[in-house]
Amino acid sequence: MGFAAVARVTSDQWITCAVLDKINFGLLPGSELNLETTICNEIREHHKVVVIDHVAEDEEFANHHTPLLYGFQSYISVPIILKNGEFFGTLCAIDPSPANLKNTSVVGMFKMFADLIAFHLDALQQIAISEQTLQKERETADFREQFIAILGHDLRNPLNAVSSSAQLLARLSHENRAQRLITIIKDSSFRMNGLIENMLDFASGRLGDGISITRTPNEDLEQVLIQVIEEMQAISPTRKIKIDFNTVHPVSVDGKRIAQLFSNLLGNAITYSPADATIEITASSTEDEFNLCVANPGKAIPPAAMERLFQPFSRGEVEPSQKGLGLGLYIASEIAKAHGGGLTVSSNVEKTCFTLSIPSK
């Protein structure tokens, strides 16, 4: 066949997508023919294959306007049907001379190529949809993370004002009722500050190069951990905390980040354990590794929740009083990674234990 084309055929257009022209028919990719002058327009309506070996001897097409207009004697056109059933166009071919086209081999080959073209078009469409969806998801994620960063930054100033005012009131007033209210304000400020820190770290980690750390050689980790415990017990004075520290070997870490990580773990242990339970904290260091374990009795973490426990905005089953952003464990895990270590969890009906392991140097 001297000329072949993949044609896009709609209700008002016939446009070439790809062309093989050995007879100088004159069409290039993007060229158009008057729709009404083509047999493809008829195929668009009935979706059937049209094959002509010799126009002059064909009863149906001997006097058809299309062969007379374009001067061909042999013709084949196969509809291209997309996966969703939509008619795309045709794979067609013509030649000025007669040809033996009405046989299983030729018609089968054209049908196969038409199916391959339809498959390719479907794949391209799916890729385009996927890319569009991915772009929207990226834009949504970027917007969310930027919003978190801005919100966290803007919340700090009024929160600092509230915290400072509470401290000033505590010094000025000695009435029991006022002191109770001041304690509530201070506790709420402490919790809000932790949420803001997590939001900012999450946004920084996702928008930048991850959570940054500044190591201090021979960091006094026992003092770092004790300070966090004292802060937590000031908020929850009735909670029982048992410690077992053996950190005789020096450790090079970012003390503030370890305190932040430990605060998240200890806060979770207090939140998710019975009020009369004892929380056990063990810490040890060797020449090679520092380990910290926070264990508490309570309900076992469900397997489904375990799989996504360290993912952002993910939390286990919570009571109304246990609401949060679901960022604490994600931030803690990222801090562990920034130190070249990891954070793991084990949970059963007896207790849940979060374990931090990082290199000592």
UniProtKB/TrEMBL annotation:
GO BP field: osmosensory signaling via phosphorelay pathway
Domain Histidine kinase: 150-361
Matches recorded under InterPro entries: BphY/WalK/GraS-like, GAF, GAF-like_dom_sf, HATPase_C_sf, HATPase_dom, His_kinase_dom, HisK_dim/P_dom, HisK_dim/P_sf
CDD domains: HATPase, HisKA
Uppermost EC category: transferase
EC assignment: 2.7.13.3
Protein known as: histidine kinase
Organism: Pedobacter endophyticus
Upper lineage: Bacteria, Pseudomonadati, Bacteroidota, Sphingobacteriia, Sphingobacteriales
